[in-house]
Design goal:
696 residues; mainly beta
Length: 696
Amino acid sequence: MTIYAPSALGAAVALLTISMGTSAIAQSESDQENTTKKDKPTVEYVHVYGEQGKTTTATNLNLTIFETPQTVTAISRSQMNDFMLDKANDVLDYTPGVTVEEVETHRTYYTARGFDIVNFQYDGVGTPFAFGLVQGQADTAIYQKIEVVKGAAGLITGLANPSATINYVRKRPTQDLQANARASVNEWNGYRLDGDVSGSFSEGVRGRLVLATEDTESYLDRHEDSTKLFYGVLEFDLSDNTLFTIGHSYDLNAADGILWGALPLVYSDGTPTHYDVSTSSAPDWSFRDTEQNQTFLELKHQLSDKWTVNAVYTRADIDIESELFFVDGTPMPDESGLGAYTGRYLNGVTRDIFDVFAAGYVTVAGREHQVVVGYNQADVEITGAGFANFATGYPTLGSDWAQGNSPRPDFVDASGTSRVEQDHTSFYAASRINFSDRLSALIGARKADYEQTGISYGAAADQEASKTVPYYGLTYQITDSLMAYGSSSEVFSPQVFVDPQLRPLGAIEGESAELGLKMSFNNERAVLTVAAFQSEISNYGVYVGDDPVSGVATYDPRTQESDGYEIEMSGQLSDGLNVSAGYTKVDIQDVNGDKIPYIPKQMIKASASYHIPTLPKLKVGGVLKWQDDITTPTGIAEQESYALLDLLVSYQITESITAAVNVDNITDEKYYNSLYWEQAYFGAPRNIKLSVNWEL
């Protein structure tokens, strides 16, 4: 199908894409907006799925999810609490239309609409993607909500990949005192404690503190995880019109018995392997520690009743240390015949990001229109070093390799280093034009420049690119509760990936478009979205394997096409009933017509919670996740279609204390986490978590 908007409609549609692309990924006015003193929120916890109120993009063009011309999913704090979505992977695995490809423990790809997700934001400010995949297990305790905007977006970041943009919206201080704490345990000798307190120190000064600690074993043999989390934020009313915010977060995720690669999928005679769910190839000396520090400064000044100027500076550091063991080859039916290799790695990335923009309203032809202009700059340094033992680092494995008995070598030989510097700059401008009470258009553009220099494990990493990318959007309010929309944009996304010769791939380019209908229910507390989408891109990096010397992930450039449709419903359908559900159908193929087999063609993700009217202190809920069958890229193994069911029961014991039981994978389904690679490991079996929550 062809759904690209013609250029006239495109100009109108692009502006909407901007506002929806980055607008849908920001905080709702009711609880998160960095407003001035007179607008401070007093209540933050809203037990509604999706949080359908106003959103503010990095462009500060205020739109509701209903008004936004793209498919938008917002996972609220209430949803995270109900289903104990304590890690980013948990949230995104719960999100309609998104696949979480856990190729290893603590190394993950996210995909949407057939493409890897490489666009990430914090409070609407873009963060350049560094490693090509997500490492570690980022904790969600510091976030008020997490928003996912499907399709091309990223006006100010220089990224416009047609998959999705993920925006992590941090918790902010509240005017009134509020506090909560939670303790939870699981059946793998695991515990978690987290707490959150917020309020005013004095007139014009507010603060918030979030702490979390977690320590747990796993269903996987020899695997253990721990988390230490701190987040603090202060707001100062410098005047009635000026707000200054400073915050810092620290997230240490340490994991032992960590997988590098996963399990063989077939034996040498071509028959499928048959391991227990708990099987792991990792010895107990293997580990990966991921430490993330992020500091941000924000200044917001209200110039007048109609204009504001915002400036944001963010410093983010990620340090990753690991010692890893990889099982290589195809085993004999008696489990003999495998080889292995090992490696020690020190990886890091430092980002300095500055974003400034002015946003407001102008009156033309008797109507108000929104306007934003801004500048964004990100300086990124990526470092890496590898170590091995070339004499003893490639042991021959016996048939007991899954027992974790392989000894740790002394990592005495340097296998390569990397130091790459990136400079991202962009100017952007957008305007939401209201032609009538029902017809609105969004028109905008971003001029993006990208330069990269340095050496990546012996290969030159130098590349540069520059392009002006337009955005178009159009919405028409058919009735008060029914809206039609369209959006279109070009795709331009610099990649940090390298090819098998360790040469930079360069930028992705192409086109992306979406047409849809949105209907609101229950006074816009819930929104139904029906959307058709199509994308065509070239030079898209597809993972093909690790470099045998350096261990660096390598990618081939491909031309790919994706089309399909999505149906999503999210919000409060009635008092006590919250729903988040979606069906996605996607068809993706490369230029030769070959399908991408590891991405399911069809997915359903649905969750709901319900306060029973006759028992108002009792809440019941559940999550259903189903996906179509998939195979590995080469077709050596298949995962048949399967469904997972999670259940929730919570009871309010007192006005302040609630107890809950969560049962995940209640049918004890056995399934692979991902077939993105030619190895895989199994997802968690049936398991139970108990929690007690206290709220002031």
